[in-house]
């Protein structure tokens, strides 16, 4: 009787560990894809940030900064 209870506890602990690991990797993967599709900083946010610092942003400068941020995020994903 005690051996059967030991197996039940062992299976429960293994299922818990496998579930936690699977949930972690699933959440991590979904968060990466969400951030790739919806970057945390948009052009409008960057424009208002530059204006608050006293700079008048041109569209060329905004495009350069957005391209640089995209390149940095791609390099970070490769690591």
Strand content bin: under 5%
Mean pLDDT: 88
Q: From N to C, what is the helix and strand string?
A: HHH
Count of separate DSSP helical elements: 3
Spatial extent as radius of gyration:
23 Å
Number of structural domains: 2
Give the overall form.
rod-shaped
Q: Low-confidence spans: pLDDT under 50, at least 5 residues?
A: none
The total of beta strands comes to 0
Intertermini distance: 51 Å
Q: How would a textbook summarize the main sheet? A: none
Question: What does the secondary structure layout of this molecule look like, with pairings?
Answer:
Blueprint (H helix, E strand, L loop, with lengths): L1 H36 L5 H10 L6 H20 L1
Please, could you describe this protein's structure?
This protein has 79 residues and is an all-alpha fold. It folds into 2 domains: 38 residues; 39 residues, no CATH class. 84% of the residues lie in helices and 0% in strands. It contains 3 helices and no strands. The longest helix is centred in the first third of the chain and has 36 residues. The protein is rod-shaped and about 75 Å long.
Question: What is the compact description of this entry?
Answer:
The chain is mainly alpha-helical and 79 residues long.
Throw out a few tags for this protein:
mainly alpha, 79 residues, 84% helix, 2 domains
């Amino acid at each position: 009787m005690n051996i059967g209870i030991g197996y039940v506890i062992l299976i429960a602990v293994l299922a818990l560990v496998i579930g936690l690991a699977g949930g972690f990797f699933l959440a991590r993967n979904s968060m990466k894809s969400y951030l790739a599709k919806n970057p945390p900083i948009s052009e409008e946010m960057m424009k208002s940030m530059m204006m608050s610092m006293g700079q008048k942003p041109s569209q060329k400068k905004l495009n350069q900064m957005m391209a640089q941020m995209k390149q940095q995020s791609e390099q970070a994903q490769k690591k």
